[in-house]
Design brief:
Layout: H1 3-23, H2 32-45, E1 49-54, E2 58-64, E3 73-79, H3 106-123, E4 129-135, H4 143-149, H5 152-155, E5 160-167, E6 175-176, E7 180-183, E8 185-194, E9 198-199, H6 209-227, E10 234-243, E11 249-250, E12 253-262, H7 265-285, E13 289-296, E14 301-303, H8 305-318, E15 325-326, H9 338-344, E16 347-353, H10 372-386
Parallel strand pairs: 3-4, 3-5, 5-16, 6-15
Antiparallel strand pairs: 1-2, 2-4, 6-16, 7-14, 8-12, 8-13, 9-11, 10-12
Helix pairs in contact: 1-3, 1-10, 2-3, 3-10, 6-7, 8-10
Bound molecules: nickel (II) ion.
């Protein structure tokens, strides 16, 4: 049976898996049910190796081709975790767990990579080895890094890695990617300002933390407008401001929180340095003190040039109907855990159209099952093209 027919024939079954994952969302590393199903299915497809517990709850499946003379080993990655969001849909397969929801489509990513595993284990029409990487905790938990720290790349000899994320607004059958930075580094900060509280009628006897903090919020906007190269992208957002609870009291302390997003390591360093300088010196100027906790999150998701060109070629073969491949999509300031894998090995991350759906992380979002054959076709074609059978 030709490949597209075989994959089309698997669509209904893969859809059933996807909807089961959707009904049973799990968070971060606590993906025991999902990981258990993934491992069980990989074994039932006849994968040569299935290993669980990598990066706590990550699962790896290994499929060797008809031959392995090429010595090539390619890693394909899917994420398994959901989000702490209350689902607001009336879908028959809506989340059965209150406060948890697959609002980023990782249910679809996991189901599509399982579908590709099934096809590849059945046909083995390639010369080399595929390593399927099912990771936990993409949503803020660093599950990819946990798997790498557990030695997944060396242990399975992975030479190149590929990842995929669905993209609402992009038509089903279309793809988008770019070489270089595709998604941002995402850092977070927490600022504590300590002044001198007191009666609001006697401000002269206080050090007004609230006034100090508002100056800090305003001055932080100068990092992007005055320190960053205007041709580069950066975001500095203060997203929480907690101070005071009475009409007539000047608060003793204030707390600010926020995020910094950048597309290059140099700008990332610059933003961190300037943020700390601005906060501490402004506080000092008013006679207050301030501390900054700055926590680096996911690094830049940086696509490697050769693998990106290769991935774009695969996408062009698979792009369906009115589908197209945009090789110059602008970067987004969102962040992605796959960035750690791209730091460990050359590879490429690609966006795949989810059609006209609600946005990612929205309570009405749903993965588009019509995209399943496109995603599975991308994985299968990538493997068979990168490691052609003799
Ligand atoms: Ni996601």
């Amino acid at each position: 049976m030709p490949k597209t027919d075989r994959i089309a024939a698997l669509k209904d079954e893969i859809t059933t898996w996807r909807r089961d994952f959707h009904s049973n969302p799990e968070l971060l590393y606590d993906v025991h049910r999902t990981a258990g199903i993934v491992a069980e299915k990989l074994a039932s497809f006849g994968c040569d190796e299935v290993v669980t517990g990598i990066g706590r709850t990550g699962v790896v499946g290994v499929i060797r081709g008809r031959s392995s003379g090429s010595g090539k080993v390619i890693g394909l990655r899917a994420d398994m975790d959901a989000l702490p969001i209350e689902e607001e849909t009336n879908l028959p397969y809506r989340s059965k767990v209150s406060g948890k929801m697959h609002a980023c489509g990782h249910d679809g990513h996991t189901a599509m990579l399982l579908g590709a595993a099934r096809y590849l284990a059945e046909t083995r029409d390639f010369d080399g080895t595929v390593v399927l990487l099912f990771q936990p905790a993409e949503e803020g938990g660093g599950g990819a890094r946990a798997m790498i720290d557990d030695g997944v790349m060396d242990r399975f000899g992975v030479q190149e890695v590929y990842g995929m994320h669905n993209m609402p607004g992009l038509p089903v059958g279309s793809f988008a990617l770019r070489p270089g930075p595709l998604m941002a580094a995402a850092d977070r900060f927490r600022i504590r300002v300590e002044g001198k509280g007191g009666h609001a009628a006697k401000p002269n006897e206080t050090i007004d933390t609230l006034l100090v903090s508002t100056h800090i919020v305003t001055a932080l906007q100068s990092i992007v407008s005055r320190n960053a190269d205007p041709l580069e992208s950066a975001v500095v957002s203060v997203t929480a401001f907690k101070a005071g609870e009475a009409f007539n009291v000047i608060p003793q302390t204030a707390e600010l929180m926020g995020t910094v997003r950048t597309l290059t390591p140099e700008l990332r360093d610059l933003c961190e340095t300037r943020l700390k300088e601005i906060v501490t010196t402004i506080a000092r100027a008013f006679g207050a003190t301030a501390t900054v906790e700055y926590e680096r999150g996911y690094p830049v998701t940086r696509n490697h040039a050769a693998q990106t060109e290769f991935a774009a070629g695969i996408a062009a073969k698979v792009a369906a109907g009115a589908g197209a491949v945009d090789l110059e999509v602008p970067p987004t300031m969102g962040a992605e855990d796959f960035s750690f894998m791209l730091e460990a090995r050359p590879g490429a991350f690609i966006f795949m159209g989810n059609g006209d759906s609600a946005g990612l992380h929205h309570p009405a979002y749903d993965f588009n099952d019509e995209a399943i054959p496109v995603g599975v076709g991308y994985w299968a074609t990538l493997v068979e093209t990168a490691m052609p059978a003799n």
